[in-house]
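Supplementary Note 3. Input sequence used for the single-chain structure prediction.
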Amino acid sequence: MLLASALVAAGLAVSGLSLMQIAARHPQMAQATPPLQSSPPPATQDKPPAESKPGDERPTTPAPEPARPDTQAQKAGATPALPPAPAEKTAPPIPDKK
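The predicted structure, written as discrete structure tokens, is reproduced below.
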């Protein structure tokens, strides 16, 4: 019991000395986080949004192009945006266990 209490006392002493050393080297150890930056102010909106019409589609700029042009466009020299898909790899069927 005497040995256990001596070890606990030694541990507390070492911990106390370590804390004092840290406090002496870094006096500003506990600092608050810097204030968060607010989001940028919204842009001034001088124009109201355009009127929506039923059935209309919104135009996109530039216009989207298909990944694979149709056959007439390919004959005219259009190249596909994507490479051809790889062929599926097939293996021989797994033999049944005997």
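DSSP finds two helices and no strands in the chain. The mean pLDDT is 75.
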